[in-house]
Batch of 3 targets.
Target 1
Amino acid sequence: MNCYLLLRFMLGIPLLWPCLGATENSQTKKVKQPVRSHLRVKRGWVWNQFFVPEEMNTTSHHIGRLRSDLDNGNNSFQYKLLGAGAGSTFIIDERTGDIYAIQKLDREERSLYILRAQVIDITTGRAVEPESEFVIKVSDINDNEPKFLDEPYEAIVPEMSPEGTLVIQVTASDADDPSSGNNARLLYSLLQGQPYFSVEPTTGVIRISSKMDRELQDEYWVIIQAKDMIGQPGALSGTTSVLIKLSDVNDNKPIFKESLYRLTVSESAPTGTSIGTIMAYDNDIGENAEMDYSIEEDDSQTFDIITNHETQEGIVILKKKVDFEHQNHYGIRAKVKNHHVPEQLMKYHTEASTTFIKIQVEDVDEPPLFLLPYYVFEVFEETPQGSFVGVVSATDPDNRKSPIRYSITRSEVFNIDDNGTITTSNSLDREISAWYNLSITATEKYNIEQISSIPLYVQVLNINDHAPEFSQYYETYVCENAGSGQVIQTVSAVDRDESIEEHHFYFNLSVEDTNNSSFTIIDNQDNTAVILTNRTGFNLQEEPLFYISILIADNGIPSLTSTNTLTIHVCDCGDSGSTQTCQYQELVLSMGFKTEVIIAILICSMIIFGFIFLTLGLKQRRKQILFPEKSEDFRENIFQYDDEGGGEEDTEAFDIAELRSSTIMRERKTRKTTSAEIRSLYRQSLQVGPDSAIFRKFILEKLEEANTDPCAPPFDSLQTYAFEGTGSLAGSLSSLESAVSDQDESYDYLNELGPRFKRLACMFGSAVQSNN
């Protein structure tokens, strides 16, 4: 491919100059064209573009020549090359204007170079022509192979997929120029993966070409090749690998590998007991391998199968208890099927796999077995001791038929013998206990550990052995002025016996009260009766009380009668004529009695508490007398001064120096400032204390006195003595003799001396602030 150099002269006549493969001896052919009216005549020259082939491997490759029309060949012109790439990628012969490429050009790295050219007159050093811009384009060659940029490739496709199913699309790219021939036109082919896969040549789409079974092979490696130049000779190629995995579909049914299972179960096993497991196998995986087990044949309905969904095992469980003596072996058939089967795959699961299970029952020594689950007997109350109640029976279900021994638990009223006969051991009273809930225990004599128990219920039947009686205690009153036939009381009765029919009571007066009585009775025929006066007028003084005997009979067989006494009080009802006045008086009397009792209780309580307080007071006074020295005043040598006095040197009132032989003080440092000196003296004063033989003697005497005193407390007594000290090194605190004014002194240090100096710090600090 040729490139041309376009020059425009001052006269505006363009010149085309071949530059590719041109030599210094190449002749220049000028093509004259008419001057166009819209072009202005100017001094300048313009370079269009060069086309340079890519992948030039020579050290210095000639590209073309630049030559001014003013150059007469006397070597007076100098050509210069400017712009990106000038000097590093391209150079120019300054005398001839020939352009050379000194580096290998790669279109994929840079396809275009924009440069500027300039012609300089060597004699004058000035530019002959204006600077002109031109372009060098790098033409493409097929030097890049196709590359798959999205590697690695992996695809998943269901097994047994039909032919033509899309798997994945692979795409390669070529860095060559797609507009330059077929350098970037790719063609795809399959190098590995036949006969199960195919690839579309132009798109790179991989499709299934044959059905595949995951159980035979679950993954495939496919190699795809991409060639540029549509596969023509000299084309470059690239390959990639694609991992294709087959996902599982439920195309296999579960199958029992064992056609017969043998299991055993003990006859003593409770219902729900697991007696064994069965196992089927499925070549599928995951959800497609989940199975459900079930019983297909079991006429006895004794067993069941449940599925363990974690292990996919079938667990045979006992649905009903088994008895060796009744049946010692069973035969059942179990089947298995998948839990999830899509409709389109039902053709693979038309017939379920089955297996046969033989179950042998093991004999064990069983406890005795009662004929009935429980027994209910009836017996009349008041029956004599040893009366017959009933018979229970239990047998040994095993073949050896062991004899049985019976017993009754938690009962002192009934007995049972070895034959199971139950008799009474005490008299029974239905009114005390109408039912007895007992437990009968049967024990094998050959094996006393074999025990069974059942409940026994004994009902005590009623006989009429209790006569009726008043349902409550009656307080009956009659007024002195009561007339004949007046109702003064209604009575009712109860009977502790149980009656088959409804109770019915009959009320009558005794024979004595009927012949000579001031009262009469009328039976209401509803288990109640009314008491009426049989005369007019009663005298409270002569006859305050009346006692009448009332006969109450029941309807039992035989009928029983009781005599009940009713007390009648004669009452002075006054003008009201009502017995409520008498009832109120009785209530007041009873309440008065209760009030007196409460007052007596309160007085006794006060006496008891007073005695307790008095005892506590005497004990406290006795403790104070035992320790009289605690009240002594040890402050004989302490004097209190309410005035300022003459300062620290005033010791005429009391000389305490006699009590000290020496004092311990820290070495006093040189005084620097008033505030620092006062703080130092404050710390020193805290370390001054007694250190003389007189004080030691005094303390020892007190210690000896405390040790010999029998009334002294059993603990050490600590006595604290405070002394002012030997003197104050700070001098007088009075401000009268101070040579320094308060304004010149800072009292901030008072805040550092603790809470005792808080007041002074507040006073002096506020005073200084106010003065300022």
Note: The mean pLDDT is 77.
Target 2
Amino acid sequence: MRRPPRLRGASSPWLAWRSLCATASAIPIPAAPPHQTDPLSAHFSNRPAARDPAVVENLTSTLRALFASSPSHPRAFTLLKSAAFDAGLAPGALVDAVLSAAAGPHSGSPVAAVHVSLLSRLLTSLSRAGRASAAADAYAHMVARGVVPDVKSRTDLLVTTARCSSARDALALFAEMRGRGDRVDAWMFDALMRACVKEGMLEDAVRLFDEMPGAEIEPDQRVYALVIAALCKLRDADRGLHLLGEMKEAGFETWDFTYRSVVDVLVKVGRMEEALRVKDEMLSAGKKMDVVLATILMHGYCLRGEVEKALDLFDETLANSILPTNVTYGTLIRGCDQAGMTQKVYVLYRQMRGQGLLPSSHEFGLVIKGLLCDKQWEDAVSLCVEMADSRLPDVFTYNGLIRWLCQQHKLREALNLFGKMKETGVKPSVVTYNSLLMGYCEKGCMDEAVKLYSEMPVEGFVPNVFTYTFLMKGYIKKKAFDKAYALLDEMKQNGVSCNEYTHNVLINGICMSDRIYEVDEMLKNFIGEGFVPTTMTYNSIINGFVKAGMMGSAFAMYQQMREKGIPANIVTYTSFIDGYCRTSCCDLALKMLNNVRRKGLQPDIAAYNALISGFCHEGNMSHALQFLVILLKDGLTPTSAVYTNFITGYKDLKMMKEASKFYESMIKEGIAADTVTYTTLIDGFSKDGNVAFALELYSEMMAKGNIPDDITFTALTHGLCRIGDIDGAKKLLDDMRRLDVCPNALIYNMLINGSLRDGKLQEAFQLHDEMLNRGIVPDDTTSDILAGQKSPEGQLC
């Protein structure tokens, strides 16, 4: 038979298909009818055309000729596949064509196995080509015609149904197969279980495994691995362990992944010893420790709080040339953070970066948090800015850092970071704005705070209760209580509910001002609006009266508190103890302390500190020391405030040697000195003439991250001016400018006086001008100093 010539440039699938038909059947291709103008490929351009009976008959006759030559003619599948994929015949038409061609004149005869195999191959081809709908149609048509495709092709159908549709649809199709009594095998269970695990249908995967014995099918290696993985994800550690043992007993090799799954679930449910035992079994079976297994075990140690063991394992993996991954470092960073090992967190981050890896935004936030805990805020800011372009710091990282800076009065740095945040495309949140508002309000910069507040709606942020509360606290600090109170009405107009904390801020604010007499009326108004006062509310009012020296009013409020059934606590009584100590009535404070004990309340560190402060203020250091012994016996740890009171007491007695001993004891006990402690020492040594040591303390406090305030600088300026070092005192102004600390009038008065004393009249007036430019109002002393210089008979203060 002569081979027909090759068609050049034939782009029509129909022409290729007709060529196959002609070659397979050796029947010449009939010429197209004279009236036909469309190409033959138009018959197969869409599904309706492919159902043309004439076209199907053409395929059927060609297949019949092939089957007549040989029932398993190799050209038959090629022709059928071309009709399906190139010509686009409908799946049902393909099945009908095969069955019609196979039946011949005896239409009722059973379908031969060879033709079932042909249809099975067709089903496999459609399934593996991802044509799930066509494969499903073909399968349905086969079943309707009494043909059951082989297991392999039905497995392919289940796989493509799960991949292109869903595992649930594949399960429904599988149920239909089993309902008809069609044979199934382990491959089908494997395919379905794999699809279920992939889609998170873990219970269905386990159910399929449990149905295998009923289908008289033994699980194979793949099925065991899948069901163990599903059980481990469901945290069913007991059954996962049991099936691992069953898998080994069946003689199957256990894969690394299966071992790791079991170790992982045991770690997560807190059974670390068993996890280590399974790890040992894995290594005994000839498997090797890898980074995934090592990371799982590190996570287990961290969950148990045994971070040191996790770090030891980390060092061991490095020694064995196992390179850690992002997940490994992330696990250790989180573990060290939980354990408070902040320095190690930073070390791990540096190792990670040295390896060319990046942490997640959350883990990077932990690194920043650790640096802040260690008071390495400059490193934290630098690191954040360094990684900003990589988008590693997210809004939570920025918010945490900005809030910390604002709390530490480093507003300039916080604002710079805010600018960097917006520059790199990280959108701020209402928390960001609230933190900056807090910073402005703490610094007393209310104009800037109000400007930022007005920007919030423009930027799409709705002020919340915290926004208003920060503004209220700012106004209260500036003694602009009417403005703070006016914000309450603005809150209500904007639909923001006032919470208990906001009410208490206003009550506490008026108590700390010189308008304490208005607090009773304010409380009545708040109660009328639905506010329910708490112990904290009354404690604020009582403390306010105590601080104002109005002990009678404090007791009256205490009586009101009791009448309303609101219980007093140790804070309430501590206020009274503090009040008696402030009015030099330490004997009454002792009686109140005994009363507290009779009520079954345990005095806290604040109560003892109030007594110690009172006795130190009176210069009765022996009594103060007795209470230090008592609080230690009660199991309490002295705070920096307690030590500072002793330092203050000895400073006032000009016993700086004893003050130094308390400072040294404080450091030895690991109690960090704060700004107040350092300021007290600097003031004491400056007045004692030891300005050099005062300057050493100043450098030390800066190195430890304690920011001096205007009182610290006042003490240092006074000391330097006393020894005639006016230039050194002026240099402190530069430090204040750098630290964003506003000088007070007293500092400028001392500098102006010192300059005049040295005969530097021009410098004195320059300082006066600088004072005015910075918005610092000169007081009477300033005028007296300058007036004394102008008058020939005037004497310098």
Note: The two ends are 130 Å apart (CA to CA).
Target 3
Amino acid sequence: FKSQNQCLSTHKMISVIKVVGEKNRYSLLSVLTFSLQYAGGIGNGLKEAPKLMDFLDEPLPGVGTYEDFNTIDWVREKSKDRDRHREIASQSKESTWALMKSISDAFSGWLLMLFVGLMSGALAGGIDISAHWMTDLKEGVCLSAFWFNHEHCCWNSNENTFQERDKCPKWKSWAELIIGSNDGPFAYIMNYVMYVCWALLFSFLAVSLVRAFAPYACGSGIPEIKTILSGFIIRGYLGKWTLMIKTITLVLAVSSGLSLGKEGPLVHVACCCGNILCHLFTKYRKNEAKRREVLSAAAAVGVSVAFGAPIGGVLFSLEEVSYYFPLKTLWRSFFAALVAAFTLRSINPFGNSRLVLFYVEFHSPWHLVELVPFVLLGIFGGIWGAFFIRANIMWCRRRKTTRLGHYPVLEVLVVTAVTAVLAFPNSYTRMSTSELISELFNDCGLLDSSQLCNYANVSDIERGSNALPDRPASHDVYTAMWQLALALVFKMLITVVTFGMKVPSGLFIPSMAVGAIAGRLLGVGMEQLAYYHHDWVLFRGWCSPGADCITPGLYAMVGAAACLGGVTRMTVSLVVIMFELTGGLEYIVPLMAATMTSKWVADALGREGIYEAHIRLNGYPFLEPKEEFSHKTLAMDVMRPRRSDPPLSVITQDGMSVEEVETLITDTSYSGFPVVVSHESQRLVGFVLRRDLVISIENARQRQDGVVSTSQIFFTEYTPPQLPSSPSPLKLRGILDLSPFTVTDHTAMDIVVDIFRKLGLRQCLVTHNGRLLGIITKKDILKHMAQIANRDPDSILFN
């Protein structure tokens, strides 16, 4: 060979000999003959074969990415990030520039959290200011500066009196502007008509913008975010258009007076900010698992700006939405929530140096006897939560399966019209829900002019402090109680049909409103009971005549927490959020008692929270970590193919042509294929993704000479010798997962489900004595669990 200067390179010769030793397919004579032919020593004087491209050494754009409505491979993504980190760490020792790059890479996560907090806080401040102004626009306008809401307009006025502090010459109702008077039935009708017209206009704009530009901007967004954080991909759900349209339409939907809140959608807005800003940093842009760590922190930011509760936001992300929440994400979530709360505080959207409209402070202590009504509120919250979930899911399923779902604009307009027409006559339903909660939470003082605080004998009380003792209820208070009772029924019914419409709609505020109304009613009842029967055993010793024993506002707060807990099944995070709202540590025990009771009662009536119920309704492949799998089934009972199914579609590690592989891809819709030694042995080699196969073959046709439909595809480490007349082979070992997760056919399904939950697997291969039998995907597990629960397995829509 040396005399001809055409000897085989050492590694190529070793490759051929290794193939012989490993596979035992060619005799040594045939190898030497092939080597002489390859070197040009004998035969026809063949030219050297073209260099094979190994996609392990030359990564292709698109390989390793995922298609829409597919689940990410958590194990592969984490492995890629570890490899990237090792490479950066090893290079950092070589030069100062590499060390600087390593430092910037470590710091990039904190910088991204800073940007997410700043952007989310700024957007939340703008939403709060705009929604407050547009809500007041339904009732009138400020003549001196039309961009002022009612409260800000009257701040600068020196002409309004203490008794009529809400009325000032600068603020004009629509009746005053149109007919010149605000008194009389005609003025009332004019204000009524304008209120309904503005509500219809706002809701029409909201649903039209959502339908035309960003269909993903509707709803709360939390069920989809939970699904995305579990590893599912929904392209565009956290994109630029969704963020822009959701921000605008959220203001319009809240201002229209519909029974919805902005707190849930703010989590979606914050996650959109996090996803968009991820593209500024390579390690988050190219790794889906790392991006989900950012989205977990962004969910915490959303609750932080919604309630002014940074710690509650972190706990909400940990308890309610996150699927994978390492300690590093906890620290970064805390930092991002802090930055967001600071940004919102700097904007000061409500002008009172508070982060929410219904911040309250209570000063009266609670007594042990009051735990009984607090637990009763918890029972009410659990019953309401279970009722709401069943009724709302029934209505949403009806919307999906009937002609009702074909007319989303008409549905929104009809619900808005009914809401506005029924809400206007009652002052407690006419005001925004946040203002209603603020009034219900309020602890009555001397400076309060609310009808709820207009007790009898106020003039006889010494006005030495703002705190007032328990007093008999006046006619105004009883009137307010009747109005609140009607408002409670109205809110309970209208929220069922509102949540899930094609506008941004949160559930936190409507649920809290229902609970706050019920709590205030019970609180006033307890207050009057203590006043008239202070000599009863219940009140003796701690509630003397003339003392401030009962705080109705505290009952409203506990009721709000109970109802929100019954609907969402939140516990720890909910108590912390409510604690941050009130700023009082001494009320944690009542909140804990009501929240825990609410969860127990709601779980007894139905295991799912509202977000899990909507995930199941939409057919998302979400494996609920809280749900127990207690059935004694084996992997062979769930795997595919079943006995009546065609055999499993596999690819052999060598011997299949490009055309055969392309035909297999065309004829099937699977996300990937097991690679085996041969069809006869079915010995498992690895697993290859469909998307990677398609991209690699397309790139090979363009970049590698001689690749045609008859070219052989090899997944082996060394390419076996080819006949002189054969076309160029294609080596695709680089895209092969050589360590797919496997279980035996007798593995219990509860263990398989645990593996899927804790490792975030896409699929798991089933073997028997090393021989491939079948495959289990997340969708197979969800269908199996649905069958066991007597649900329709075909409701799992996505793979």
Note: The longest helix spans residues 96-137.
